[in-house]
Amino acid sequence: MDFSPSPRAAELTAAVRGFIDTQIAPLEPGIHADIARRRLAGEDPWAVDPRITELQARAREEGLWNLFLPAGHEGPYAERYGTHGGAGLTNSDYAPVAEEMGRSFIAPLVFNCNAPDTGNMEVLLKYGSQEQKDRWLDPLLDGTIRSAFLMTEPEVASSDASNMAATARVEGDEVVLDGRKWWSTGVGHPDCRVGIFMGVSDPDAHRYLRHSMVLVPMDAPGVRVERMLTAQGVYDEPLGHGEVSLDGVRLPVENIIAGPGKAAEIAQGRLGPGRVHHCMRLIGLSEMALDLACRRASGRVAFGKPVVNLGGNRERLAEARIAIDQARLLVQHAAWKLDTEGQAAVEVSAIKAAVPKMAQKVIDMSLQLHGGGGMSDDFPLAGAYATARSLRLADGPDEVHLGVVARAMLAPYRDAAASATEAEKSR
Amino acid sequence: MDFSPSPRAAELTAAVRGFIDTQIAPLEPGIHADIARRRLAGEDPWAVDPRITELQARAREEGLWNLFLPAGHEGPYAERYGTHGGAGLTNSDYAPVAEEMGRSFIAPLVFNCNAPDTGNMEVLLKYGSQEQKDRWLDPLLDGTIRSAFLMTEPEVASSDASNMAATARVEGDEVVLDGRKWWSTGVGHPDCRVGIFMGVSDPDAHRYLRHSMVLVPMDAPGVRVERMLTAQGVYDEPLGHGEVSLDGVRLPVENIIAGPGKAAEIAQGRLGPGRVHHCMRLIGLSEMALDLACRRASGRVAFGKPVVNLGGNRERLAEARIAIDQARLLVQHAAWKLDTEGQAAVEVSAIKAAVPKMAQKVIDMSLQLHGGGGMSDDFPLAGAYATARSLRLADGPDEVHLGVVARAMLAPYRDAAASATEAEKSR
Amino acid sequence: MDFSPSPRAAELTAAVRGFIDTQIAPLEPGIHADIARRRLAGEDPWAVDPRITELQARAREEGLWNLFLPAGHEGPYAERYGTHGGAGLTNSDYAPVAEEMGRSFIAPLVFNCNAPDTGNMEVLLKYGSQEQKDRWLDPLLDGTIRSAFLMTEPEVASSDASNMAATARVEGDEVVLDGRKWWSTGVGHPDCRVGIFMGVSDPDAHRYLRHSMVLVPMDAPGVRVERMLTAQGVYDEPLGHGEVSLDGVRLPVENIIAGPGKAAEIAQGRLGPGRVHHCMRLIGLSEMALDLACRRASGRVAFGKPVVNLGGNRERLAEARIAIDQARLLVQHAAWKLDTEGQAAVEVSAIKAAVPKMAQKVIDMSLQLHGGGGMSDDFPLAGAYATARSLRLADGPDEVHLGVVARAMLAPYRDAAASATEAEKSR
Amino acid sequence: MDFSPSPRAAELTAAVRGFIDTQIAPLEPGIHADIARRRLAGEDPWAVDPRITELQARAREEGLWNLFLPAGHEGPYAERYGTHGGAGLTNSDYAPVAEEMGRSFIAPLVFNCNAPDTGNMEVLLKYGSQEQKDRWLDPLLDGTIRSAFLMTEPEVASSDASNMAATARVEGDEVVLDGRKWWSTGVGHPDCRVGIFMGVSDPDAHRYLRHSMVLVPMDAPGVRVERMLTAQGVYDEPLGHGEVSLDGVRLPVENIIAGPGKAAEIAQGRLGPGRVHHCMRLIGLSEMALDLACRRASGRVAFGKPVVNLGGNRERLAEARIAIDQARLLVQHAAWKLDTEGQAAVEVSAIKAAVPKMAQKVIDMSLQLHGGGGMSDDFPLAGAYATARSLRLADGPDEVHLGVVARAMLAPYRDAAASATEAEKSR
């Protein structure tokens, strides 16, 4: 066993950390404050902040761009795009890089490594036709457009994909989209040009062949962003989460990714690395919250002592330290398994069930140590809380992932269960 | 022992519940939606909604007004104000009424029973001079003005009152206020005309005699609402929480309540019933969240079953049911002790430590059962969460209240501790 | 609402507390030590300790005997048995008395108020024929014999009564018992003369009419105590828990209580008050553990401070204080409901799900504060832990009781669930 | 990063697992049953079971002997002792081997890898004189004698070493031991011949130089095993935990290990690997409990379903799966850090705080799924519970280890705390 990062991972992690500390951190509070100010002043809070654009340009210059792009694709993309092509990192190597990015709300965007663009780019990379790549992947890798993923629906329990009501009917050489989606992250950004829409294309097919993914330009007739949603009071600019209606949207059949009925297969491949990224960013977010907690509780005095020395505070901090470290190791192990075995569905469900809950708890503890300030926008904790909380639901609620873990662990005992039930019935 | 409510309490509880169900509930979502709409449209989200004014008038007509006013004061106030005078309820009797109000965000305001006005009115009632009552208590009872309580400070750990930095210096026949306060609830309301400000008047006095409470008109020169704060992303209109600076505010010395140095004594009396009210409203809020959880989880289907029948959901609902019931009994017991013994500081700290935490957990569970919708503004859960979360800090953080409980329970063992330490030292 | 105990309850609670403090407490450690000594020496640890017999006699003289006997039965029993007849306490009034008894492991036996004798006596009182009463109830009330309850079975999940495999077949004027039971409390006592056995008498009847309860003399041919069981390492003398086999035990059909098929009806009536008693005794046990924790943590020093002032210890003690108080109120409320409404099945399931778990947690906390000693037999904590732990399983595991609570609370939403599932199916 | 075990670790892990499955597991229940039988029959439960002696001989033949012996010592010891010398495993490599051993209560002893002999052997190996090694280390490596560690004291809070009251006074060429120790594991075994005693040798020295460790033959005049202790009702044969009094025990000064005043230094080195072993064995114990839980809950039916499909059972199993996996990774990381950096005090405290708590919880969950049987001796769960519970206290209680973690994590913020307190004072 060897817990050291590879030299490449260590180097990029340090570079990303340095960039965040020196370039992003000094600007980030101002950027958030400006969004808040615009919102209060009735100005457009979604307008692109030129500071972010500038930061993106600098990150790209320094080769810190598209680092999420998985190993195996750096070749052609390096040739074609130069630095767009990522660094060819394995999931293990990218994990600590993603953790660093998670310490800032805007860093993922600055490095062109934010959800859902990363997942969408991966889908196009693996399943897109050359035309689809030319039209959408290139500008996404370039950071000149942004994208959304249109899956969750307001009217049904979307944790069960078989509940999906939206349709993507093929009619001749067209595909017609109808339905309503929400929690479509990214649609708040003015550069959001394309969505990957998931809908039922053949209700009578086997449930793994029932759905299709379709590239839908956000300006296609019939597509309408109904509203931007708050998550625990937070709009989460500059990307945001929207509710989108699609009403008889007609598109060329070529917009279907990999052909009709392939959505389940694509989703499976998309979600593994994406969930590792989410979890590693949450590790970074938790570290940020823990750092603030240590700082605040060391620097404020009550009842004659630094707050850190009151009651159970030191124990709580130590427990948070241990919880984060355990969670990080679990994610790194899942990433390593993804790299070495090609898939790790159970391990990925395990981290998805464990990490957001841990992050929610650590952030809540830090918030409590900040007193009233912790709930306000003076600290990034209410925002961090909203992020962690939403990830207990996004990409499948905790309970669904626990169910995946349980199914796998109980499989070897299945015969026992079957014969017990049988015996029972025959009584 | 008798767990039945008194006939008067039962009658008023039913009346309040009926009023909320038939008058408030049909309007409440629209009122909140309108605030959100105005905010997005750059209009003033703090402007008084005429529907609330109308509801207040109706509540008053039906005698559901100032019900919080403690027993013993209904006599003079009934004479002077008619229905303003409350119903002369004990804490025990008011408890279930407050619980009902807690199911709605605006009901407390509609019934003129909202914090911090209730506490401020109690202070004036018990400690105010006739002039102070005439000027401020009458319109507060009348609902024509609103008030704030200016205690917590941004620069220090305010859970320790000895940290307070704001000053209220007496200079001749004037008192001069300086300092910065935040989490001043109510200052967002356009009718907020007066604050009760707490500051150091004599830094060299015994720590129970060091502070004074001063009535400060919000339009006094030197008073400035710097900004409204969000709590977990929520502005909590129509009252809101503000940050207020006071810069050389000069007021007649008569504005000091009960004379200089009386703040600690007044605070002690103010906080007992106020915390019981907070806790009972949180019980109501938790019931609301649990009701939504049962409804949602019964009415949505995933994996072929109502969500309520999936995994541990039924157990979680039952545990929430038990947790709420235990908490309610604990609050009612504290209220009963306040009534029968005149004070119940330890019991009140116990409920303040236990109930917000319980409410936070129940609401979080309900939110999880709602999926993405739970985090949005389509349900009152994100708002409820912010309310419960903020009450783990407001009026003293959990940890401080646990400390009060511990001190009381350990008092009988103090000699053991002293002699053990002594023995240790002499080794 | 009125949280004061009735004068009768207050008086008896004080009398029981006084008796325990002055008569039982000085002897109890020696009694337990002697059992342990006998066990190690190869002597009979189950032999009756004459000190207990003596204590029983004194308790009876002081009128502290059979206090569990429910109100309504004191008349005839007072006439017939004098002080045997109990005090005619309601469940509410008996609750604080039971709490006091719970602070000692042997007090319930000393006062003739121990499980399962109390439940068995109630069954005979309510459902027994005059012959059954004459033969078994009289000596039980007199304390000259003891009894057991033979329900749980080793081979099946006994939380589901329909799993029961033991049979009680009526053959002419005999009933024939076959089966194996365990966790039969009381069979370790040399005076245990009778068991109430539950078995299937008519497998084809409705599931509420399928089982019968039969009085089985422990010396009947075919009855065999196979072994005494440890619960978390503890034999729990002087009553103990046994595994009992019944092999073709033939008894007169008159030994069936209330006739064949009545077991479910009897069990329902037996379990309400019994569970209230269990829970109140656990409250007392938790108080005992908390008292020891305060004492130990106040009287020992580490790192220069009394242990109570280290880390989160004060918070843990305060949380235990609050948890016990909440639990007590919940039990008292259930007792009051039993008294006023005649039944309180859901409330009783709620306390059965909540109280043992609370007790386990409080005792574990106290044990941790005692360091190594806490696990040893120098303190009653390992024994207390075993008691609390076993009550998370005895009389139905936590999960079954949570299920009862959930079913009740979800009943009003059942239509929503039904129509949602219907809608789902018709899609 | 690489999470694969080394080939050597994989090979030995498989060999140990195979040996346990095929040689130990078939005998283990019978061995425990026989101890219980002897105890009940008044025979000596501590007598050596010849089956264990036989298993030890076979383990040694197969080279599965002294595997705990740290890398770097295999050279001389291999030469001198042949297979006694261990396999030269790093902590990382030994970790999965120790996990396997943890699945059985007797396997550690069978492989000569049980506490406290392992720690004692390491102390002699690193700090012992040649004479000490010849007399005590050789037979310990050979498994012909056993040993104890005499540190914890009944009269003081031993988590703070400065509380230690036992003395080891040097008088001329003798050292005189006085004091009382308990929780001395191993003294129940008839072959226990030597203890490592820790006592104050110079009360006026710096606190790191105050104590000495002395080799004390268990048959030295003045040494007396006062009694064997139960831990949660369990005697934990065949090693057991004893209380030992030492009354004027005179030994040659050469019995002091590494000379007077070296106890703290020795303890530091002894505890790191020992705690890793403890934690890895607990991982194995937790896996055993989880396996039993899956098996039992799959194979029993209640309410028409396998128990595993009732309520929250699957979620609880999945959470246990995740908790164990996280804990294992944390321990492996600490082991790796011990290997690569030579020390890992903070990481070792972190695992010591986290793993026993996790194990306690997992075992308790499994026990609950077993119903009444789980508490009895029919399953190894009550014993496993006692083991996990005792490790929340042995080698330092959870809270002390959390304190170590907190101190380390707060060190970088210490200046902030100091200046805040300073500022406070100067106000």
Automatic annotation (TrEMBL), chains A, B, C, D:
GO cellular component: cytoplasm
Family, as annotated: Belongs to the acyl-CoA dehydrogenase family.
The species this protein was found in: Dietzia natronolimnaea
Protein's name according to its UniProt entry: Acyl-CoA dehydrogenase
Annotated keywords: FAD, Flavoprotein, Oxidoreductase
Residue ranges of every copy of the Acyl-CoA oxidase/dehydrogenase middle domain listed in the record: 148-247
Molecular-function GO terms, alphabetical: acyl-CoA dehydrogenase activity; flavin adenine dinucleotide binding
Pfam families: Acyl-CoA_dh_1, Acyl-CoA_dh_M, Acyl-CoA_dh_N
Gene3D superfamilies according to UniProt: Acyl-CoA dehydrogenase/oxidase, N-terminal domain, Butyryl-CoA Dehydrogenase, subunit A, domain 2, Butyryl-CoA Dehydrogenase, subunit A, domain 3
